[in-house]
Specification:
CATH topology of one domain: Immunoglobulin-like
Bound molecules: alpha-D-glucopyranose, magnesium ion
Low-confidence stretches: 1-52
Keywords: Amino-acid transport, Cell membrane, Disulfide bond, Glycoprotein, Membrane, Phosphoprotein, Signal-anchor, Transmembrane, Transmembrane helix, Transport
Structural class: alpha/beta
Main location: membrane
InterPro entries: GH, GH13_cat_dom, Glyco_hydro_b, O16G_dom_2
GO biological process, one term: amino acid transport
Largest sheet: 8 strands, parallel
Number of helices: 19
Helix content: 25-40%
Strand content: 5-15%
Number of strands: 24
Organism: Collichthys lucidus (Big head croaker)
Length: about 675
């Protein structure tokens, strides 16, 4: 396209003429004085433009389609060039400042908390949570139907006890196929649906991983007892015969010898738990490989983590020597329980942590996508050897579990006093390696329910403790409503451990979840069967009833869970002891740089007391009760010198201060990772 001269009447704005224009015949306003040499020509052209038309151009405005040389002429004028250069350097400076700021913020920012740190972990015992098909046993669809419960409680992490295919001798902890779902619980499709739905609701699923043993019905065991060359050493076999003594004095956790003679193979196999749970031989490389493949199988399906079962039993000493007796004078034939021996050769053997760290590394391979961190928690009761438990945290250079379960608070009911609770808390805080993350368990499927062992009076204060301590709380299903143990008569016993020794039965803490005061407490509303009896108190202690009551255990649990999540000092601040006596345990939660802090005063004693905290200079003289387990006390303003609490009462005070407690009392304070709050920018930074 080209413009005709003025004749076609086209107007270029205020311009009367296009000085740089060259028409079809080669004519135009810019004379061609070219010499034929390209470089020279250009120079001359622009020179002639300047020479010929300098005055004219100053009267013209830029227009669309103007030739390059004219454009350059304009753009080199100071009024265009200067602002352009200013803009250019401003952009450069801004970009550099932003990059520098970003780098500084990233470098100074403490790590973000991961999903397993920001929410309590809720344990579902799938047999007992919700039965969708009316066979009396809970199932995966039942769990899916109740997911709203976790939204209500503000809980994101759900650990589901085993649902693998199993003959159910130890209710799922005896696995027949690690890649299949037991029909009692549903199908693989049900599992996939449940997982997808959980993820869509922002919930994470933690599975049990049971490496120590399989069921005696597992294909590997059958191949091993028939001496298939590949599987021959998959389990721990030793020479013995049916009538002669066992290979050594080792005993099972469930009682009696941990060796059973197998007629098919003509040897004894080791089982640290039931005889239907033969121990795998982790000295066999194929076994190690199989277990890693299983980890991959579930991670690929999308599970978010594993609770690793009974890990300290994974390896045994290859020499199979007798373990030392606790009482050397006891006749050897009376050695039948795990308490009779020092487990020098059957637990925590060299090589165990290498195995766990290897599994951790496999899991880390799946953790790289943002928000897809795969969590690992180990289960090991090493009661009197806290150092052994702490080893599961790994070292600063090699990661192992995110935390080993902390079972010390399971002993809380032994002696309800503030000092005792402080002692149990301190056992963990004082021994936990620097920079690690704490966790707290007050109940699980192996231990009596805390509301029964400590008493209903204390369930609220225990939940308050659990949700205001630093670290991840674990809640066993039903603890959020204060469920209690059931009474199980001898003829009703289901648990194999209980069949061996009724007092060791774990049935009492496994009764159906109490959802409502409907039939079977809403656990199974199709038929009148439940695999264990429902607790008779279900008419008052159930989710539906407690939801209506602002003062219920459930409502308080929910408020605490929300409080914990929404306040920085509670989930990532300092934890400082301020007081402990026969009744009361009190501590602070504060964060450097933040004025807001919390004081928690918990009465675990048997009577009402008044606590004097006037010696804590950092506390304001007057404190307002933000939460109390006794609704009447909410909102009260108390003097720090006179803080009254009833037996089983817990108080949370929120206060504002410029004086932090931790700098003056470092020996009383703990923090996982130091962080400071910068008010002007509303960010956390490492300090
Ligand atoms: C763990 C489980 C327990 C089970 C045992 C054997 O300790 O918590 O329930 O019986 O391992 O797998
Ligand atoms: Mg083992």
């Amino acid at each position: 396209m080209s413009f005709k001269k003025d004749t076609d009447g086209m107007e270029l704005g205020e311009c009367t003429r296009n000085p740089g224009y060259q028409d079809e015949d080669g004519g135009g306003s810019v004379p061609d004085t070219g010499t034929g040499v390209p470089g020279e020509k250009e120079e001359e052209d622009s020179a002639s433009v300047k020479l010929d038309s300098a005055e004219e151009y100053t009267q013209l405005k830029p227009y669309a389609g103007m030739p390059k040389e004219v454009l350059l002429l304009y753009s080199s004028q100071a009024r265009y060039r200067v602002p352009r250069e200013i803009l250019f350097w401003l952009t450069v400076a801004c970009t550099l400042t932003l990059v520098a700021l970003t780098i500084t913020v990233i470098a100074l920012s403490p790590r973000c908390l991961s999903w397993w740190q920001v929410s309590p972990v809720y344990q579902i015992y799938p047999r007992s949570f919700k039965d969708s098909d009316g066979d009396g046993v809970g199932d995966l669809k039942g769990i899916q139907d109740q997911l709203h419960h976790f939204e209500y409680l503000n809980i994101k992490s759900i650990w589901i006890s085993p649902f693998y295919r199993s003959p159910m001798k130890d209710f799922g902890y005896d696995v027949e196929d690690f890649r299949d779902i037991d029909p009692l619980f549903g199908t693989m499709e049900d599992f996939e649906e449940l997982l997808a739905e959980m993820h869509s609701k922002g919930l994470k699923l933690i599975m049990d991983f049971i490496p120590n043993h399989t069921s005696d019905r597992h294909r590997w065991f059958n191949l091993s007892r028939t001496r298939d060359p590949h599987y021959e050493d998959y389990y721990v076999w030793a020479d013995c015969n049916a009538s002669a003594p066992k290979p050594n004095n080792w005993v099972s956790v469930f009682g009696n010898s941990s060796w059973t003679y197998d007629e098919v193979r003509g040897q004894c196999y080791l089982h640290q738990f039931l005889k239907e749970q033969p121990d795998l031989n982790f000295r066999n490389e194929h076994v190690r490989k199989e277990m890693i493949d299983i980890i991959h199988f579930w991670l690929k399906k999308g599970v978010d983590g594993f609770r690793m079962d009974a890990v300290k039993h994974i390896l045994e000493a290859a020499h199979l020597r007798d373990e030392p007796q606790v009482d050397p004078n006891k006749p050897p034939e009376s050695i039948t329980t795990e308490w009779d021996l020092y487990h020098d050769y059957t637990t925590s053997q060299p090589g165990l942590h290498d195995l766990l760290r290897g599994w951790r590394a496999e899991m880390d391979g799946y953790s790289r996508e943002p928000g897809r961190y795969r969590f690992m928690v180990t289960e090991s009761y090493d009661y009197h050897e806290v150092d052994k438990t702490m080893m599961y945290y790994g070292t600063p250079l090699v990661k192992e579990s995110d935390f080993p379960f902390n079972f010390y608070l399971l002993d809380l009911s032994h002696n309800t006093s503030g000092l005792w609770v402080k002692h149990l808390v301190h056992l963990w805080m004082d021994n936990m390696p620097r920079g690690q993350w704490a966790n707290w368990v007050v109940g699980n499927h192996d231990r009596p329910r805390i509301a029964s062992s400590a008493g209903q009076t204390y369930i609220r204060v225990i939940n308050m403790l659990l949700l205001t301590l630093p670290g991840t709380p674990t809640t066993y299903y039903g603890e959020e409503i204060g469920m209690e143990n059931i009474n199980v008569t001898d003829s009703q016993i289901q648990d194999p451990a209980g069949k061996y020794n009724a007092s060791a039965s774990r049935d009492p803490e496994r009764s159906p979840m109490q959802w409502s005061d409907d039939m079977n407490a809403g656990f199974n509303n199709k038929t009148n069967t439940t695999w264990l009896p429902v607790h008779p108190d279900y008419r008052t202690i159930n989710v539906e009833v407690q939801k209506q009551d602002e003062d219920s255990v459930l409502s308080q649990y929910r408020s605490l869970s929300r409080l914990r999540q929404s306040h920085l000092p509670l989930h990532r601040g300092w934890f400082c002891y301020v007081h402990a006596d026969a009744s009361v345990f009190a501590y602070l939660r504060e964060l450097d740089g933040l004025n807001q802090a919390f004081l928690i005063v918990l009465n675990f004693g048997k009577q009402s007391v008044t606590t004097d905290l006037s010696s804590i200079r950092e506390l304001p003289d007057q404190l307002e009760v933000l939460m109390s387990t006794n609704q009447e006390n909410r909102g009260k303003v108390l003097q720090k010198s006179r803080i009254p609490t009833g037996a089983g009462e817990g108080l949370v005070f929120e206060y504002y201060t410029h004086t932090r407690f931790n700098p003056n009392h470092p020996a009383q304070c703990y923090i996982s990772e130091k962080a400071c709050y910068l008010r002007v920018m509303d960010i956390l930074y490492t300090c």
